[in-house]
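Dear colleagues,

For the upcoming journal club I promised to circulate an example of a predicted protein-ligand complex. I picked one with iron/sulfur cluster because it came up in last month's discussion. The inputs are reproduced below in full, followed by the predicted structure.
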Amino acid sequence: MKDGIYRNTCPRNCYGTCGILSYVKNGRLIKVTGDPKHGYTKGRLCAKGYASTQFVYNTQRLKYPMIQNPRGSGNWKRISWDEAYSIIAGKIIELNQRYGSNLASGYNKFSGNLGLLHNAVEGMFNSFGPHTKPTGNPCALTGKLAVNQSFGDNYSSVPEDMLHANLIVIWGANPAVTNVHQMKFIYKARRKGAKFVVIDPIFTRTAEKADIYIQINPGTDGWLALGIAKIIIEKGIDFEESIRDQTIGWDQYKHFIQNQINLFDVSKRTGVPIEAMEVLAEFYGNLKPAVTWNGLGIQRNDRGGHSISAINSLAAITGNLSNPNGGLYYMHFDKEYFPQLLLNHQGPIHPTITNSREVDISNYSKNALTLIDPPLKFLWVASRNIITQDQNLKSWQQLFNQLELIVTVDLYLTKTAKKSDIVLPAASHFEEEDLNVGYWHYWLALNQKAIPPYYEAKSDLQIARELTKKLNELSPVFSNFPYEKEPIDWIKEELSPEIMHQYGLTSYEDLLKGPQKKLEITRSTSDPEKFNLLPAIETHANDLFLSENLQQPLTYRLLTPQTLLKIHSQYEMVSWLDHGETDNIIEISYNAAIQHEIDENAKIEIYNEHGLIAGTAKINPTLPYNVVLASQAGSNPINQLISQKEEKDKNSASTFFYDSIVKIRKWREKHV
Ligand code: SF4
């Protein structure tokens, strides 16, 4: 690679999708800065982004393909890429011959790298014909479906416009930790006089900055939205006729709110005093434009979708959806408007099996274990660290026992990689080309290959190309993956005439000059539908008959937020970012500390029927009495305690990460 400055994009599962300038000398990445031409991130990165050089040149990074025998023993041996491809291709072909199809072969991939060319994994499996594929979205599907129900389409306001708001209400999000760039728009709005409200069970770093912080019982956000709506409706809305015209279900919604919602009941369920609801109702009524941000936190329980619908409806009935610069934020799914040619690559037709077998990724192991005829026998893991992230680890262990070959592609020897038979070293985003469209802001950016691969690391696309060749060498025409196409060909094909028009591009070269913003963000790409108020009341009508708090005494709801210097288990190996902020710290309330006679810094355990975590107690005086807080990541990952409720509809919701209930006890020495 030539010395110089290259354009990269941070591909992490993060709101930022930041533009990066990479400085390269003698083939090495010597420093990174933010790309000032990126109109949203404007030349800034977070600490994780600035730590990129250590992320790339890290002694713990995987250098070569390796095989472990027996699996889990730690007895790793370096092998060549050709040996790795021969073993993997041999297994895929053998399973095909054994079962007459590729259904015994599958993959599990999610959000470790969100670049469009990382869809090479999906494309590679598609190119074998019907196989076993993950569907759904463990993080955001609940909210996505709720937003769709409200708007008839995906929709999230333009983040830069937040600075024009006079009221900002953040509901279940902690941008001071997870979306640091957005804070500058909030600060600017506040300097101009905007009121800033944070609603969250946890007194977060964002809540510390707010004018008003409202502590709410987890999972009751929808009730609070309905309570505020009741106060607003009772005071009278002077533009009621236009609401009736612009919405579906206004009369039913109003009737339900007036007759079924009782503020004392709402207060009891939510833990929010009626006076606080009145303040919020007054703010929503008088401070226009108002923006409301549905955070991911509110959809991590089995009432999440309905909470988002109720919050959306509150924004609609206060006239903030038709007010310029007012609106709603969740996240957008603009990626779906791209051709996504790798994702949608069509494989060969099987004589009797028409489709791939789908497994809901939010409960993959349990669902995969139910598959028979044939059972799942081969698993490819990419952009994912199942063992630190997924739920139902006991069923994952069962699934691993059933699998005949597990291959993990990663930059590091993660906990999942350690349970695999073969690990393949993945290229970092500085070592591959890609195209990135985020899910928060509306900027499209290129990712250039800035440096040669670290030792023998390869991109997902390169691996797909080479494994295809090996498969076809061993079994002619086994795969139809177009291995001859270069990354740049795939990128150019993503820039369809529609995409070029939407981003105001005249040619691919425009992207070399810097990120480009989508020109027009409409609420609906098709014929705008009316806003639907009915989902906001549907489940709440059923919930009226439920007790306001089903939690047993001396049990605690486990909330597991992100931390500032990690994204899940990513960046764990980067010592620059290791401030020991997460490792096995368990935050408990004063009440819990008294109940269990636990002192600050005492060793404690939290446990349930799924597992046990041991850690150091930190007494958090702002924590609700029945909540325990343990951050994601750390050496003893908290997902061990998380298991999906059985009644979750297939493919219709994310993982209910925040529905897990745990107990607390003092440390038992045998766990040391
Ligand atoms: S982790 Fe997020 S904020 Fe940090 S550099 Fe990457 S995209 Fe930007």
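Two points we might discuss: The mean pLDDT is 92. DSSP finds 24 helices and 27 strands in the chain.

See you all on Thursday,
B. R.
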